[in-house]
Amino acid sequence: MGILIENRNVYYSRRLTVILLFSFVLPLSAQEPVKLDASDPAAQNEDKRVLGVIPNYRTAETTPDYHPISAKYKLTIAAKDSFDYPLVGLGAAFAGLYQLENVHQQFGQGMLGYSRRVGTAYADQAIGNMMTEGFLPALLKEDPRYFRMAQGPKKARTFYALSRIFVTKRDTGARSFNFSEVLGNGVVSAIGLSYYSDNRNFRDFSSNWATQLGTDALAQVLKEFWPDIKHHWTRRKASR
């Protein structure tokens, strides 16, 4: 039993590592200007692609005056994050890890098994985004955006970014527990039981739920520090 738990921990650690590797190995690419909501001042100067590739539509800068966004705009953010092409690449990266570890054995091996893993890994990400950024925030009147701390010690900013999976703003501007994030990832983990037939028990469900939350937490850290990384690269390039 101890070996089984250890293997599961290694697997989930590798899954989270893929997030970081995928985020930093993609090359910078040209991008079309993103049309932003004119009623959302916090989003106007925010870079909508980390590394020029990774979707970053839900990140916003903190402003003195809070401006809520409409339910329609919440769904727009969720759709952009869910159906942008890099998410397919992330699903393919996860699928490669699953194939290597022979996770979800009902899919088998070979190209057929890999293609099934790509589809389900992409579904996990897309459904998760739609639930946590679109449907539940619209229903519960919560703000799905990540508001950067932007200044202060690195440790404080890292803790702030990680904690935002549990803390959010309501449409009134008041701080609240992030029901959309926590419940949304629980829902996608439950939906996953329908196509992961070899993982239909509470332990696997809770592990998948925790991994979804951990993945989003690491993504928040990346979004918090991306403008600083970009500024450092730009300044370094200019000094050459």
What does this protein structure show overall?
The protein has one domain (2-238). It has seven helices and seven strands; from the N terminus they run H-E-E-E-H-H-H-E-E-H-E-E-H-H. The chain has helices at 2-25, 71-83, 86-101, 110-140, 154-163, 179-192, 202-238; strands at residues 49-50, 54-55, 59-61, 142-143, 146-148, 167-170, 175-177. Helix 4 (110-140) runs antiparallel to helix 6 (179-192). The longest helix has 37 residues, at 202-238. The chain is globular. The termini are far apart.
Short characterization:
The chain is mainly α and 240 residues long. The protein is 60% helix and 8% strand.
Quick tags:
disordered N terminus; three-stranded antiparallel beta sheet; mainly alpha; 240 residues
Work out the count of structural domains: 1
Based on secondary structure, the structural category is mainly alpha
Shape: globular
| Terminal Cα span | 56 Å
Largest sheet: 3 strands, antiparallel
Neighbour order of strands in the largest sheet: 4-6-7
Strand count: 7
Oligomer: single chain
Could you give the order of the helices and strands? HEEEHHHEEHEEHH
- Classify the helix fraction into a percent range: 55-70%
Q: Name the beta content range.
A: 5-15%
- Average pLDDT works out at 80
Poorly predicted runs of 5 or more residues: 1-10, 22-44
